[in-house]
Amino acid sequence: MSSTLFRATPLLRGALRASGAVKPASATFVRGKATLPDLSYDYGALEPHISGKIMELHHSKHHQTYVNGLNSALDTIAEAESKGDFTKAASIAPLLNFHGGGHLNHTLFWENLAPASREGGGEPDGALKKAIEADFGSFDSFRKQMNTSLAGIQGSGWAWLVKDKSSGNLGLVTRANQDPVTGQFEPLLGIDAWEHAYYLQYENRKAEYFDAIWNVINWKTVSKRFEKP
Ligand SMILES: [Fe+2]
Q1: Which of 84, 116, 153, 206 has its CA 20 to 30 A from that of 145?
Q2: What kind and span of H or E run contains 97?
Q3: pTM of the entire structure?
Q4: Beta-carbon neighbour count of residue 20 at 10 Å?
Q5: CA of 69 to the centre of ligand 1 (A)
């Protein structure tokens, strides 16, 4: 079992709590149940950039699996802790990281997307625009660097625009599998590079998906995350 992952568990718990992805039913976190969040748009609303079929499967099946896996991992850990069986609790840490990260990442992802006919696409404005220009040179350069990060992911993972909590500077990070962004970085904008996010529509042409998704980025949400103290 991975002791590193187990040590990361409090960070993941904090991130899940902070994002609202898991709402404690009481003061004890483990009693809270994760639930699949509703989308603020229809499955077909991101077309033609992301097909309705992908959105339906991605949200109702893939994300639901992470929700179920997270609740199951939390239940198992709570039961093991109540019996003082910390070896058993620790052995669940990789599952907690995977499903908890999957739930958190997708919750953030749905919120940072919006139909092109509404607030999706275009470019950010205000303080976020200035920060992107300061830290990446220009919006275009930022978008290219993010797409390069996405293309460089081997296997499944995510690319994130993040804010360093100490310096306030923006940066790009990638995460393998469902590893969440925790610790010093605040996740602002995540793009899912798993095959389940594009394959039905784009097949092996993932660069086309990475280009198309910019048409449905919800910059209002990203700005709100950036401006959050
Ligand atoms: Fe996904």
Answers
A1: 116
A2: helix 93-111
A3: 0.89
A4: 11
A5: 14
